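Open question from group meeting: does this chain pack into something compact, or does most of it stay loose? Before anyone orders reagents, we agreed to write out a predicted structure and look at it together. Recording both the input and the output here so the notebook holds the full record.
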Amino acid sequence: MANNVEGLMGVSVEKIHELVDANTVVGTPIVMGEITLIPVSKVSYGFASGGSDLPSKSASELFGGGAGAGIHITPVAFISIKGGDVNILPVVAKPDSLDRAISMVPDMVEKFNARKAKKNEIPLEDTEVVE
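Structure tokens returned:
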């Protein structure tokens, strides 16, 4: 079984290596007149594999397994070269839903505290009971 799982892992790693190399992180320079732009990206990847020997009445062993991989490439910046000047031009990514939700937490806490404080200011005898 170990050799079969190692074979699955080897194929997965080999395929990832074919897709992601140094040219993916620091891309091929783009020349536009006097300016050279070099793209820079962030690469995240992961893979998993597993397998098991299956019981068999025959003398040959049966093996069942699988492997999977995922890659996420995010542009980060461009290195701009013009003459002797080198600048980094960051790429501003659009915030995703989680970023927006996290940024809303302080406002939500403030509104909650304001309502709680307002609720605590109303004397009990001034409230009406609706039947």
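Observations to bring back to the group:
The two ends are 73 Å apart (CA to CA).
The chain is about 35% helix and 40% strand.
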